[in-house]
Design brief:
Shape of chain A: globular
CATH superfamily of the largest domain in chain A: RNA polymerase sigma factor, region 2, helix turn helix motif
Distance between the termini of chain A: 41 Å
CATH topology of the largest domain in chain A: Rna Polymerase Sigma Factor, Chain: A
Number of domains of chain A: 2
Distance between the termini of chain B: 30 Å
Largest sheet of chain B: 6 strands, antiparallel
CATH architecture of chain B: Sandwich
Radius of gyration of chain A: 18 Å
Oligomer: heterodimer
CATH class of the largest domain in chain A: Mainly Alpha
Shape of chain B: elongated
Order of helices and strands of chain B: HHHHHEEEEEEEEEEEH
Helix content of chain B: 25-40%
Strand order of the largest sheet of chain B: 1-2-3-10-5-8
CATH topology of chain B: Jelly Rolls
Number of strands of chain B: 11
Radius of gyration of chain B: 20 Å
CATH architecture of the largest domain in chain A: Orthogonal Bundle
Number of helices of chain B: 6
Chain lengths: ~180, ~210
């Protein structure tokens, strides 16, 4: 079975927003629900809880499809943020102080952000390539940051590294990723 | 607003990954509301998260999962609320904690010219607002852990420099400082500490203990 392309998944979410398209929803569900479940299991959720939250995440995709903007993020990035927030809410029982990227009170103004922002759809392709090309020791720390949910001090202890080394690897990795995005702050 | 001091990239990454707890996330999100540059760093980190999600080995859903979600698609859902444009000096993420009016906060005095307002404590990490009148400041101290301070109004200075609205000061255990509010409007900042401060002198130690610093 070939995987649906990034463009196809993005388009499917737009179709859900535009016409409540259930066939499009099935494409998104089949692709992402097992990945969201896997992500939650990796972060320590039991299989039944991960199953419930993955279903909830995909239900959120259906309900909030109108907020998805392929110019700002790919389907996988958007769904990652949904899964991350659901997990914080359900497992840590914490509020997630979050930003609505369309909030007009953002400074400098959000409108200007949109005007001069890069095309994230394209930029994310480059970012994936850059992520795959990161030196192993940098990629390991980025991956642990997302899939182990440990403070960087714990990651440092686990890898037997000074905290400063972990932080500098993060900075190096982030610089490469930003370069790949073509962002020059 | 020109922001000169930004949170470290490891802090932005821990916010993007979801590892940061609520107290740290509140500080980062409030800074992001004021700083486009850091919004881009977080967006790139989230894209890295999306990419990892894409590449993770899938775990099969239960046989009835899809049907079960389908049966819920027509449930009424809460309306999508978009943030209203508010003329407020309170960054959007902070409004859930203190409302829109920074002048309406029920400050708790500490010593003359200095007051605080606790916001949230998670895993021993405390987020609070601190209000210092010009010339007032926190007694000399070092830290057992890290301290992040986001300036909301006014400015303060210490041995490491001057911090104005939107700036985030990061201090580590080796820094001893005595942050003092500059002349002008009162300096209100959001301070997050992951361990108690270490004051010099008996009185500051006592005051620090009383107010949970």
């Amino acid at each position: 079975m070939t995987l649906p392309s990034v463009d196809r998944l993005n388009a499917a979410i737009c179709a859900i927003a535009a016409t409540r398209d259930r066939a499009a929803f099935q494409i998104v569900f089949d692709h992402f629900a097992p990945r969201v479940k896997s992500y939650l299991v990796r972060l320590g959720a039991s299989a039944p809880l991960a199953e419930d939250l993955a279903q909830e995440a995909l239900l959120t995709v259906w309900r909030k499809a109108a907020l998805f903007d392929p110019a700002r993020a790919s389907a996988s990035t958007w769904i990652f943020t949904i899964a991350r927030n659901l997990r914080i809410d359900a497992i840590r029982r914490e509020r997630r102080p979050d930003l609505d990227p369309n909030d007009p009170s953002l400074q400098p103004e959000a409108e200007r952000d949109a005007g001069d922002s890069l095309d994230w759809g394209k930029a994310e392709d480059r970012l994936r390539t850059a992520l795959a090309a990161l030196p192993k020791e940098q990629a390991e720390i980025i991956s642990l940051s997302f899939l182990a949910e440990k403070p960087h001090s714990a990651i440092a202890a686990e890898l037997g590294l000074p905290l400063g080394t972990v932080k500098s690897r993060i900075r190096l990795a982030m610089a490469r990723l930003r370069l790949a995005l073509g962002d020059s702050p | 607003m020109s922001i000169a001091h930004h949170p470290g990239e490891e802090l932005l990454l821990s916010y993007a990954s979801g590892a940061a707890n609520e107290a740290v996330a509140l500080l980062v999100a409030s800074h992001l509301a004021l700083c486009r540059q850091c919004r881009l760093v977080v967006a790139s980190s989230e894209a890295a998260g999306g990419s990892l999600l894409e590449d993770i080995p899938p775990v099969a859903m239960s046989a009835q999962a899809y049907q079960s979600v389908l049966s819920r698609l027509d449930e009424p859902a809460a309306a999508i609320v978009r943030s209203a444009h508010l003329d407020s000096s309170v960054p959007a993420p902070l409004r859930a904690y203190i409302g829109n009016d920074i002048d309406g906060i029920a400050w708790r005095p500490i010593v003359s010219g200095l007051a605080h307002y606790p916001l949230v404590t998670r895993d021993g990490v405390r987020a609070r607002l601190i209000r210092a009148e010009p010339g007032a400041g926190v007694a000399p101290h070092t830290h057992r852990g890290e301290e992040w301070t986001l300036v909301l109004t006014g400015s303060f200075s210490d041995v490491t420099g001057r911090y104005g609205p939107g700036d985030v000061q990061t201090t580590t255990p080796d820094i001893e400082h005595q942050p003092t509010a500059d002349p002008g409007p009162a300096c209100i900042n959001l301070a997050v500490t992951d361990a108690p401060l270490v004051f010099r002198g008996f009185l500051p130690k006592l005051v620090g203990k009383m107010f949970g610093f």
